[in-house]
């Protein structure tokens, strides 16, 4: 479903745009993802809406068939990229799972602020972004996904999430579609 509306108290969640990840190979140019996410950040901040910046600093425990990254990261790896221009009023969440709600207090914090909808951007589409969107949906939030402000290292995962998963979780649109809707709100 194409993005049609934004609730009066919508928050923006930017997932894993951090120094240790933006240099990775992605299926879409990361500079465009950063540019569009920053345009959304500016629009949300300009309207006094909640901004959530998420970074990842580990992984959930448990065995997997595929090898995982080391739990030790080099200095600065988890730092949010400078382009996000972190502000004192931003909510910053450090996660150790794919999604930003599991094992964090993000759901409680958004509920306390009266947030009823989230817009999600960032990396990686099929893991961090999708998991965060699923968890937001499970928390009863309306979900919108800025599909041109996200990417994945695996193009098939990116495409699958956009085509098959996101329409079941909420509405999708471009960053500009969302900014345009913000401009029509009172």
From TrEMBL:
Record's keyword annotation contains Hydrolase: yes
Alphabetized GO MF terms: hydrolase activity
Isochorismatase-like domain residues: 10-177
A Pfam family matched in the record: Isochorismatase
Keyword set includes RNA-binding: no
PANTHER family, sorted: ISOCHORISMATASE FAMILY PROTEIN YECD (PTHR43540:SF7), PEROXYUREIDOACRYLATE/UREIDOACRYLATE AMIDOHYDROLASE-RELATED (PTHR43540)
Name of the protein in its database record: Nicotinamidase/isochorismatase family protein
Organism whose genome encodes this protein: Caballeronia sordidicola (Burkholderia sordidicola)
InterPro entries per the UniProt record, alphabetical: Isochorismatase-like_dom (IPR000868), Isochorismatase-like_hydrls (IPR050272), Isochorismatase-like_sf (IPR036380)
